Amino acid sequence: MTATTIPFDIQPMPLPADAPIDVRVWQVQIDFSAPLDSAAYAVMNASERARAARFLRHADAARFATLRCALRHVLAADTDRDAASLILDADDRGRPFLAHPDAPDFNVSHSGAFGLIAVSRERRVGVDIEEARATFKWRELAPAVLADMDRREIEGLSDEPAQNARFFDCWTAKEAVLKAHGVGIGGAAITMTSFSVLPRKGDRYALTREAGAFVAVSLEAPCGYAAALSWSY
């Protein structure tokens, strides 16, 4: 899979050396100037076009349409099928899947001007990217995200910018784990606050046993963003 095979700025992301060889991640840059009726979005089906049209802001529609089309091209290359012919469905929890035999697991995230696509044929994957704004009031969200160990790690840092950055590290790691589980925020079996991911040693987060049989690592996100990847054992 190369950037020239799809009409978007998409690049493979470097993963930690100990990441499974079957796990792959691509970074997608979103072009907000492209009209949604351009040829770049031709692989979307009628339902996807209708969903894009329901967004009130063009930026939100562009994020959805770009990531959906990029995903179709990535999965088409992986399965040797035509991108427009792929059947994408969602399970009862809303997690998308490819309704074809021998389909890989995948996960998608977007924020700001970037998106991520993670794919694996051997295991569950989850990915998350967040625009890490310096003005973000992380303490307002902390009760819904942080377990006690996470909170102690963040509050032990000496200054607000470092605390803010570490909060986004924690948030993206937890989102990636939950998405790999397939439950999303507020899932019944596991929640944001039911497990810890901090501290982080190198790329790898220190997941507590409540997270289940999953690994979480940080990714080299663009400047001003935080990103994480999770996969099952």
Automatic annotation (TrEMBL):
One Pfam family hit: AASDHPPT_N
Domain 4'-phosphopantetheinyl transferase N-terminal: 39-119
Ranges of residues in domain 4'-phosphopantetheinyl transferase: 124-210
Keywords, ordered alphabetically: Transferase
UniProt entry tagged with the keyword Ion transport: no
Domain of life: Bacteria
Gene Ontology MF terms in the entry: transferase activity
Assigned protein family: Belongs to the P-Pant transferase superfamily. Gsp/Sfp/HetI/AcpT family.
Listed PANTHER family: L-AMINOADIPATE-SEMIALDEHYDE DEHYDROGENASE-PHOSPHOPANTETHEINYL TRANSFERASE, PHOSPHOPANTETHEINE TRANSFERASE
Protein name, UniProt field: 4'-phosphopantetheinyl transferase superfamily protein
Organism, as annotated: Caballeronia jiangsuensis
